[in-house]
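TL;DR need structure tokens for one chain.
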Amino acid sequence: MSEKIVVTGTGPLGLSAVLDLSIKGFETVLIGDKRHYNRDDLYSSREIDFLDLEAFLEKSDIEFVNENVEGYRPKEKIVETSEEDITYDALVVAERGNIENSGFSLDYTDNFYSPEAREEALENLEDGKVAVIGVGLEGTKIGTFLQSEGYDTALIDKSTRPLKDESEDISKRFLNFFNRTDLSFRGGSEIKEITSYGMEFKNGKELEIENMIWAGSLSAPDTVQKAFECDKNGIKVNRGLSASGFESVYAGGESADVEETDSYGKASQGRLIVENISNNSELLEKYSPRNSKLFKAGKYGVLIKNDKAYIHKALTYLAKARKVKYRIKLKIKSFRA
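>> reply
TL;DR here they are.
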């Protein structure tokens, strides 16, 4: 096939998509960081198991461009990088998200949203006490990881229950889990300001603490918002993950306005995009969010399926097995690409 497809972003969505596209015979270009990892790797162990994409893709037909995306010109079908402009016939936007504007300064907080930020956060932890702000899935993973590493950890959220996007039964299950593992949860605590000495809440109360980890929501990258005239939720896409109003553009993950999912759910989005690019007439495949999540929470494994949560140490082995299976599949695909 002569069609040239550019994929931006080297996470599970981008890598899954570009491998499958190459296998199907498309001319492919992958742009982004040469280190491939699942975000859960940032919360599961001290050492991050990176996959070096320069070496991994060396024998494939995929052109890998280890540069930052500086902008998009969708009308001209061009992606701007820090070194060159790259043309495309079809585009898959799979960039990782940016930290969402919180309404107050985050200058005195650290975060775990990139390997560099995570390393800096761990280096800054001093007295063993730390507050994780935002108790969705990411905040829960970060908090339980830090607790398992020996830090006295408190979880802070403006919602009165953790994991507010999940069912109430799941929230109750996690509250019991936090209590059992000596994790402090402070719900209903809406922050007014974060300073060098801690947090001031809108109800007038304060919490003095030096180490603060921000685990709030991620928004679509600024480059995506500007080029595709979208808000922080990302490019508007249909159920086939095709961008509304933009020819031959597909998007997923934080770059698109789809339901939040884990790393393996993003890989599934990549595979669906490939099926719909390959079928150049009518979109046959429609995206539906994964109804299960499996991840490590400190020394425990967690399985969330529908409206139930299961927390047990034995589930850590299932989480590890899934990661091994994912890596094996990538390796097999790289030989075929």
